[in-house]
Amino acid sequence: MAVDIGRFIKAPEYNITIITYRDVFQAAVCEEDRFGSEYQDLSAVIILDAAQMKHMGITEGSNVRLTSKHGSVVVKTRASPQQEQKNIGFMVNSPWSNALVSVDISDGFPGYKHIEVTIAVSKEEITSQR
Amino acid sequence: MSDITTWICTGCALLCEDIQVYTTNGQIEKVEHACIMGKSRLTGCKHTAKPMIDHNDVTVDKAISQAANILKNAHNPVLYGWGNSTSQAQIAGIELARVLNAVIDSTSSFCQGITINEILQGQIPSCTLEEVREKADVILYWGADPMSSHPRHLSRYSYFPRGDMRQHGYEEDRKAIAIDVRQSRTAKICKDMFYRIPPGSDLEFMKALSDALDGKVPKLSFDMDIKRLLELATLLKKCEFGVIFAGLGLVYSIKEDIHILSGLISKLNELSDFSLIPMVGHFNMRGFNHNLFNETGYIHKVKFTDKGPVSGVEYSIIEQLKGNADAILVIGSDPLASLPGALSKRMEDIPLILIDPCENLTTRAADVTIPCIASGIEEGGTAYRMDGEIIELSPFIQSKGMSDEMIIQRIIKEIN
Fold first, then answer.
1. What is the CATH number of the domain that holds A94?
2. ipTM of the complex
3. Do B338 and A106 touch (CB under 8 A)?
4. pTM of the full predicted structure?
5. Are A126 and A94 in contact (CB under 8 A)?
6. Domains of chain B and any CATH numbers
7. What is the pLDDT of residues B75-119, one digit of tens each?
8. How distant is the Cα of B159 from the closest Cα of chain A, in angstroms?
9. Is residue B389 within 8 Å of residue B119, measured between CB atoms?
10. Interchain pair A98, B339: CB under 8 A
């Protein structure tokens, strides 16, 4: 019987910073059906620089696990159509990005716009909403 | 035959007043002029909220009584949300906070509150969207992407229209500039006037721009052609009527250093005529700040005490959920989806009351859910547009349900 050795090997992790933003299409779907698959499809996504994805061994559309000190989620990857700054990923504001956000703050501003995480290729399914 | 109604859209804080809604027997058949967000707001949610206590169906009356009991017995209740409520509901909520000696806060405490506060305190000049449309020749979107957050912003007010003083429109009379960490949809429209900066470097860029305005050679620690910065400074100096639309990217980058932004705008006003308008999201988030300011002198993060209202970061929703809150009433918001996940557990551990037209993630953790009708669609009132103008809403659907204001008034009555 063949043994899938790959599953015993931990995928390499890279440090990146996530910047969140708003998307009109996701916001519209959220208004109508925040429990639907379309909302998940538009939310549980991280956008990365295409060259950096290649460097990390991440293929377009594959799943990755994002882990911060405050939480961990599995989301899908998408390559940015334009060149992005190095070690930066972009996510739409959603429960998936919020799961990673720090509240170790003293100014009342959670770290929505600057989320430090590790990213690693994952074979797990996309994290579902609670 | 269809009835045609002109509706004021509550999809965002632009409050577009030109939406045409065609209805037959109360059913919406067609919507004209609305953006995708406005249409979604009008269509409504797939999952409407039901009155519930501990996830069991109850009557609305029972749910209201239970909410009143929870709030009355709490030592440190927190009232949170309010951005999707009319001003009348917000004022009722402020009264409820006073009755309970409660903390009251909105999303503005980690959103546009700091810019709105500067405007209300007279530290930053602002203007109306109509003035932008008629007069503005330089429009600066800083950490803002209205094409994604307020889709009709550029077409109705800030860039594309022919204004009284801008008859040649965007082709010749207006310059749009974007300063952002990514090439947003708005930045793409700004083309070569897009200034990409590294995350968190807005203050550095602001100081360099200020130096350039003073005629000094600006310095930047990141890669950007200084000539482009000097060109921007020259453009700002020459402008006749300029507007900065401040987005959350800017707010989150400067936070407590808001005075540096105020200083830059003061400097610009020595050379030209400049205003700032915050890119407020929810349709009446700004109203909460104005209404609370009128009642207490503070715009958010307020705690009512026997000696009067006090305000401070310790009364922000975030700090309250990290510490003192022992009951929370949420109105028109979905904090389990929109607040950091680390606070979800805390929200599940304390009694949670939710008033909303729709089922959302917070419903799943709520001990009491009270459905309300949709503000601005099924219930009238007023709201503050993103520029601070008061707009009379235009409900056009008759509903039997209770508005959020009526629910708050009933809770006050039961507590008293």
1. 2.40.40.20
2. 0.91
3. no
4. 0.95
5. no
6. 47-110+283-375+401-415 (3.40.50.740), 113-278 (3.40.228.10)
7. 999 999 999 999 999 999 999 999 999 999 999 999 999 999 999
8. 19
9. no
10. yes
